[in-house]
Design brief:
Distance between the termini: 41 Å
Helix content: under 10%
Shape: globular
Number of helices: 0
Number of strands: 11
Largest sheet: 7 strands, mixed
Strand content: over 45%
Structural class: mainly beta
Radius of gyration: 13 Å
Amino acid sequence: QVQLVESGGGLVQAGDSLRLSCAASGRYAMGWFRQAPGKEREFVAAISWSGRTTDYAGSVKGRFTISRDNAKFTVYLQMNSQKPEDTAVYYCATPENPYSGTVSRQDAYAYWGQGTQVIVSS
């Protein structure tokens, strides 16, 4: 039922910007997570089904913006002022209840994309 495909990753220098996309099979609440080398996967940002509510991890607050285009069933993660510590594989995910507000708990997510690699060099 739920299919998620991330895209937009790449290699950038510190201070540069990237926009990640998550193409979904429907209009769902969505979260972005990332996993850096040697570290556990962590919450990055979330957006409600309606798109009216967003939430961010403290490490990206003020630099990243999550948004959605409901007509396209696509969620974006605009990443500005990137830092080397942003290097990770980024995943989008949909919670068990896809028609919800923002969700930050990983165990609430039932569907995951395959991930897209972001490398930020100094």
